[in-house]
Amino acid sequence: MTKLSAIPSILPSTTQEKVANSKVLVVGAGGIGCEVLKNLALSGFQDIEIIDLDTIDVSNLNRQFLFRKEHVGKPKAVVARESILSYNPDINIKAYHDSVTSQDYGVNFFKRFNIILNALDNRAARSHVNRMCLAANVPLIESGTSGYSGQVELIKKGETQCYECTLKLPQKTFPGCTIRNTPSEPVHCIVWAKHLFNQLFGEDDPDQDVSPDTEDPEAKAENEHSSTESGNIKRLSTRQWSQDIDYEPAQLFTKFFHDDIKYLLTMENLWKTRKAPVPLSWEQAASHRGDAEAENNVQAIDMRIWSLSKCASVFSDTVSQLKTELKGKSFLVWDKDDKPAMDFVTAAANIRSYIFSIEQKSRFATKSIAGNIIPAIATANAMIAGLVVLHAFRVLAEEIEKCPTIFLRPKSRHSKFILAADKDLVKPNPNCYVCRANPTVHVFLNVNTMLVKEFESEVLKSYLNMVAPDVVLAGKDSIVISSEEGETEINNDKKLSEIGIVDGSILKVDDFLQNYELTITITQYEKSKPEDPSFKVVGNPEEMKAKESTNGKENGQKEAEKEESDDDLMIVDEDDNVKSDDPQEGSSSKKRKLNPVEDDICLIDV
Ligand SMILES: Nc1ncnc2c1ncn2[C@@H]1O[C@H](COP(=O)(O)OP(=O)(O)OP(=O)(O)O)[C@@H](O)[C@H]1O
Ligand SMILES: [Zn+2]
């Protein structure tokens, strides 16, 4: 029996019928997904499917209200289904505890739906669903939040831009010389401390060198030191040297916080317009007395700013703990939830901040910066989910012209939001490497150093978001990378040039799972600086510049700042289409491979 009574009577009767008879897929049952599912169930949708790969974590409970304490550890999709049935037992609802990128969900699976609603938190899954919906020609409503910001966007093949029509700028990174030579903000010291962790205990990454950067152009004019030296230490690997001294904390401290800083001071150009750092000896730090008061205040330990002597003792203790953890392993992986790893970064970052006269941060604040944590705001999720379902009504009523992209922006601190809408639907980008006919891209890389397996994992999968690519070298018609296991593994460790991929090569890449074909033109490129990316992907080489977004907050926030209204919510038209700081990355400006900072940002309870 169709429960039309649940359908908002404000809708025209034809739309009410369509709502009751349509089949909807919700992808993701997290913060937005739970709200969307509740809205669907309460507004008359009768046939819903949910897919989510994750299980319920205790940190989800404050905002993902379909879940309770007793559900922790259970699959989100399954529990969400049960909770929705408790609202309305007549709904036909099916749950999949699985990744939407799995081969089990091909184009025919997507074709079964009238509309698909994304409530995801990462770029790879979003891109995949985007391609599946284009291939299946099913409208997709894409949404995301990031703190108090959010966005809802309709994607309809041929009529609107797709998720990949605009270049998503990679997460903000910092120039290597700022991190290594001239930090000026706490985040620079925190990134340096994470790099230090990796140099001492993590996977080797030459881009994460922590020693003074002698190639810094600003310093070079006066600095005649050989680039084979760093500080007073010959540039043998930091890891090797640390192992040679058995991770003796005082010696490590002396190198990183005294000798390297002394060396930096010899780069005089750097300090002409900046406050110079002050080298800190192990003895000075360990016996530092000036900040004992900060230690004794009553705040929760994580909220306190640690004294310098506490930082020194935590540095020493965690170096010893991490050294023990490393035994028998080739490297450790930094994790903000791993206590010694997080304590180490807090201590090292704060010691460096002290040396550079930069504000020190509590462990709590350091964790949030180091883990790129943006708080998840239940209200923002709820507002965005409401807009998702309103858009769904309009799509089903075939009024897609009434579905411009809508942005949620914080008006000011705390409770005030504004909603800003684009004036019109944004048309597809004719150069989009996904939704245009016969898409092409140019990839700049070094064919003499990049391995076939790196090209597959970093360029095709991680950057271009393919799932199961098959690559044919044009002219030779042989498969050089196959999605079939065992077919081309023999090529994995070869350089691209060794299998005939050279400057000017054209590759035909086919991802059967995404029904997506892409032509790639290879151009030989060599890094000129160590921090340069190892490859670049460009739609049109003449337009190598990424579409610079003015910071997303400007979308609606500027409008709002002009207004003096006490309303908690304002709705304004959007004057331009400039996109944002990408709330669609949700909590997670998902890094592309080139980004040294965190991959997915985790949400924290607020
Ligand atoms: N490939 C995928 N297939 C299916 N579901 C996915 C996929 N990728 C992400 N998701 C789901 O999308 C949801 C996004 O929700 P949300 O942004 O609230 O994240 P969360 O993981 O619930 O929260 P937190 O990050 O704070 O732990 C998550 O439940 C996640 O499991
Ligand atoms: Zn597109």
From TrEMBL:
It holds the Pfam family UBA_E1_SCCH. Residues 203-235, 530-606 are annotated as: Disordered. Residues 203-216, 562-576, 597-606 have a biased composition (Acidic residues). It comes from the Eukaryota. Residues 303-367 form the Ubiquitin-activating enzyme SCCH domain. It is found in: Nucleus. ATP binds at residues 28-33, 52, 60-63, 76, 121-126. Keywords: ATP-binding, Metal-binding, Nucleotide-binding, Nucleus, Transferase, Ubl conjugation pathway, Zinc. One of its GO terms (molecular function) is ATP binding. Residues 443-528 form the Ubiquitin/SUMO-activating enzyme ubiquitin-like domain. The keyword Nucleotide-binding applies. Coiled coil: none annotated. Residues 11-402 form the THIF-type NAD/FAD binding fold domain. Zn(2+) binds at residues 162, 165, 432, 435. Its main location: nucleus. The active site is at 177 (glycyl thioester intermediate). Pathway: Protein modification; protein sumoylation. The keyword Transferase applies. Belongs to the ubiquitin-activating E1 family. This is SUMO-activating enzyme subunit. It comes from Brassicogethes aeneus.
